[in-house]
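This part of the workshop introduces the protein records we will be handling. Getting from the letters to the tokens is the skill we practise here. An example says more than a description, so a record of this kind follows:
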Amino acid sequence: TLVVYYSATGNTRAVAEYIADATGADLFEITPAEPYTSEDLNWSNQDSRVSREYADDSLRDVELASAAVDGWEEYDTVFIGYPIWWGTMPRIINTFLDSYDLSGKVVMPFCTSGSSGIGTSVAAIKAAEPDAIVRDGLRASGATDSRLAAWVAGA
């Protein structure tokens, strides 16, 4: 089992670490080659980096610092975690999905958000990885979310 995640502010990292501890999984952090600053993450500013990536298809391939997951072929179950931006996953997750074939793997999407649901991100993962077994996702408010343990146990 592998827990892959992108965390902009640390919330998703905490949930990913909880899942890895609960399942004995390995962790892989998706990191952009050019880290996001707090100004980049200001979704309410239409000129911020994340707003431009959302609005402009040509900016959606976010270069990764490293996309090398050692032993990728050995993993049967992959948890994929991310914050919710505009009702879906950040573009950096799309870049990761474009880098790997999840065919035949069980994929467990999870997101962090204080108020937004998991939105269309699960459908987007299913579309990007049609031969993967994509399970229902979970929106966690944080690593102490009371639903998290039951969801992980059902993985």
